[in-house]
Amino acid sequence: MPQPKLKETLSYWSEIFNGSIENNCVSFNNEIAKGSIKGVFFSDDLYLLQFDIFLNQQLSDLGENLVDDSDYVNFLFGQTEVNTSKHITFEVEERIDLRGVVVSNNKKSLNWFQPANIPLKLLLLKVSKQNFTRLVNQSVSLKNSIKKEESFTKFDNLDPVMLGTLLRIFEIDDPVYGQELMEHCSNYLITLTMSKLSKNSLDNDDSSLNMTALFHARQLIIDKKGADIPIDFLAKEAGMSVSRLRLLFKTFFEVPIYQFQQQIRLEESKKLLLEGEKTQAMIAMDLGFSTSSHFTAVFKKYYGYTPKEFKKNNTA
Known about the structure:
Blueprint: H1 3-16, E1 20-22, E2 25-29, E3 33-43, E4 46-55, E5 72-78, E6 89-91, E7 95-97, E8 100-104, E9 119-128, H2 129-136, H3 140-145, E10 153-157, H4 160-171, H5 178-202, H6 207-223, H7 231-238, H8 242-253, H9 257-275, H10 280-286, H11 292-303, H12 307-314
Antiparallel strand pairs: 1-2, 2-3, 3-4, 4-9, 5-8, 5-9, 6-7, 8-10
Keywords: DNA-binding, Transcription, Transcription regulation
Protein name: Helix-turn-helix transcriptional regulator
Domain HTH araC/xylS-type: 215-313
């Protein structure tokens, strides 16, 4: 029975957000964040966590102590973030933007990158391996692409019906039939996901391969703190042409690759400014800006204030 694991997981998030737990729901409204994390148990085959949060400050390296529920397959759904300058990411094989669904049979650490001041709406469905195997066995193409004893991670975007179902789950507020409605919507969302994965496998769709390559290229940019990595090098690492990398990166992440690099550099500069160990000129040089004046101009254009003003307003 997963109820004890559900309670343990909710306790973990309650500690992270300094929240209180009532009726399997963690609530909080403080300097860290405001919102709720709702847990719902349906059966031995299915339970969920529903995240509806607005983060007031950056949090990272979360999820390392989450309960190990290796008997379940994770279906993690995220709504598209309107503000494309901010990214919600998760530790899968690498950090990825969640703008759709991730299906994995491993416990993964939930992690955020640049999350402050953005809304976070996620649905984590836990499906028993027995029920997941039953669903996989209905599709010959999925049986061939998802091996029972092997680790797997599948990525896909949400089609309009899937997105509508996800939104509906967040809207359910019925004191009589609420849980039944949520269970039906959850099973429907799972089935829609399996159907889409099956079709992609049957059509030999390479979206998962492309996305994995894109996540690799994106991670290289993050690891290098947004430094000007030659686009030819990134394309080679991703195993595709420069033009295809540019096209797919913008398509999947909804931001041009050069703009993403700039964003990472500027976020890194904020951290360095607050640490106070380097001068503004040194930071500009380390992050690849041509001059300190160039750094100041780009910073102000992006954030609306200068590095000096940012440091003054955020340090004692």
